[in-house]
Amino acid sequence: MGSAWPTCVSTYCLSLVLVLSMVLLYSSSVLGTRDGDSLLRRSPKLKMDQAVLLIHNEIHEKFVIYWRSDQCYQCLFQTLPVTSPTKGRDADVAIVDTRHAIILQLNDTSGNVELCQVHYKFREFGNYSLWVKSNYSGTKAVTCGIIINYNPGYSNYPIVIALIVYVAFFVVYTVVSFLLRRSPVQNWLCQQINPTETDRLINSELGSPSRADLCNQDAHLVTWTAVPQRLRSLDTFRGLALIIMVFVNYGGGGYCFFKHQSWNGLTLADLVFPWFVFIMGTSIHLSLNAMLRKGNSRWKLFWKVLWRSIQLFLIGLFVINENYCRGPLAWSDLRIMGVLQRISLTYLVVSVLELLFTKPLPDALPQNRTCFLFQDVVLFWPQWLIILALEAAWLCLTFLLPVPECPLGYLGPGGIGDMGKYPNCTGGAAGYIDRSVLGENHIYQHPSSNVIYKTTVPYDPEGILGTLNSIVIAFLGLQAGKVLLFYKNQHKQIMVRFFTWSVVMGVISAILTKCSTNEGFIPVNKNLWSISYVTTLSCFAFFLLMIIYFLVDVKQYWKGGPFFYPGMNSILVYVGHEVFENYFPFKWEMQDSQSHAQHLTQNLLATSIWVLIAYILYKKRIFWKI
């Protein structure tokens, strides 16, 4: 059989996902085909997140149509562009947004008199009619009503198909793994293959410890070691955040709910970066504590930390700089901050805090450490004082720094938000600091706020002020690492503390936001990295880490695949997916660029390829460490 057989089987299992993804391309494209194509060909060319609205005027008076998205908080109404009727058609034509429900308001030509208003959620690629009629019962009133000319199929079908494909693969893989653990199956394998190859197969696929002889009668008594030397749950958590990040960066199938929120609130895309920073903090404590226990000097470790931070910053600055999309990179418009730049600065600050104040914990700590519930916090009070000072600095700068022509403590998106009163105040103090310190040409030019709020000034979601709160969430992740070491081997204590931290962070978020998207003291906002955003994402992170820790490291029901493998090579996967984003097989020319099915297949296939690459590198013991 050869020693390569177990690896081939593993690679085949993961490659199966890619094959099934190609099947998804065909099936979802067929199901995603828009019925009534002849009707659409008579309509203007539609893009994703758009529908056609035919406007029938029966009041014989001219009017102007305004619209506003439900997602746009306290926004001005915008004029809906209307195309005059063409030959053979007696209705005007407009293109409407389908991402969220919208309000259509009809005013007379002066714009002062409201004729009627309708609230409606249009479906993507649909064809609708707006009938404007007079109602002569008593007073001359105008009524508006929307009817469906053509209701397309649900654009979410490709997601359902993709979910079925991946769940089916997971079920098959789980069943095979379960069978390989059973003694009768192991005995049968021993009869078919030599014992050494059987041992390699099961170890490769399931991560079981090596055994001298699988075929003896006591084989079923062998179990995993109680405490793995490396916590797989941390790499699994990191890989989960990374893979979702890759998927949404590649486009998320073109679905709006896989894109960043325009301003306040959360989508799936807004979760992953803070989670990555959180688990980085956890790893910082575990790794530095291990190196300090080995006798490494703090000064030597500081230089290693500094050099790694510089490398991360330079890679983000010159290798995957977003301003490449504007043309050849030049100093005049080089974006200074970015994802890796923020990670590098966060890593540097949190690591230095550890080197300054943390004392290495011994391998064996007393098991009875429950008399003082908060000792894992109080023992590190100098670090907490500095973190609280950083948070106080964020609050003071955000709410007390005067910004020209903007209200004090402004947290809004500018543009048409706040009824258009502060169009150039996007991000308040955060935006002002970046524009003043870095310059408008050196920050992100296409913030998510311009999609809904029509902002005109550049704004950087990875700017200077938000980095302070990035340090805070990394420190909260570092606290999770302290829990893991301080209560080592006490699984119940670790899980209780993770749950407690999750509840505390959740309560703080509820107070800050008043459980509202827009009406709280400090709304959850990814663009600002607001403190409520940090506490909310930390709440999710502690709870998710508790679940993964229970499944992977405590009960060992799950080995962490497939997320474990990219989690072991996170820098390589992140940099690689950015650098090779526009190259085959990660991207190719689609037959229909406005098809969610084809976008989703392309994005899922590209993400799966990176998982496969990470798996192969893991098997070859190739890890990119900087």
Range of helix content:
40-55%
The order of strands across the largest sheet is 4-5-1-8-9
Shape: globular
Measured by DSSP, the beta-strand proportion falls in 5-15%
What is the terminal-to-terminal distance? 38 Å
Count of individual helical segments: 19
Counting structural domains, the number is 3
* Nearest-integer average pLDDT: 82
What is the helix/strand order? HHEEEEEEEEEHHHHHHHHHHHHHHHHH
SS-based structural class? alpha+beta
Radius of gyration: 28 Å
Oligomer description: single chain
**Main sheet: strands, sense, barrel:** 5 strands, mixed
**How many beta-strand runs?**
9
Low-pLDDT runs: 1-12, 28-42, 201-228
What do you see in this structure?
By secondary structure, the chain is α+β, with helices and mostly antiparallel strands. The protein folds into three domains: 5-32 and 156-221, no CATH class; 39-150, Sandwich (Immunoglobulin-like); 232-363 and 371-579, no CATH class. 49% of the residues lie in helices and 9% in strands. The protein is built from 19 helices and nine strands. It has helices at residues 5-31, 37-41, 157-181, 183-192, 195-206, 232-249, 272-293, 298-319, 339-357, 375-378, 381-400, 429-437, 449-452, 464-486, 491-513, 531-554, 564-568, 570-579, 596-619; strands spanning 50-57, 63-69, 78-79, 82-83, 92-97, 102-108, 114-120, 127-135, 141-150. The strands form two sheets. Strands 4-5-1-8-9 form a five-stranded mixed beta sheet, with no helix packed on it. Strand 4 and strand 5 (92-97) form a beta hairpin. Helix 14 (464-486) runs parallel beside helix 16 (531-554).
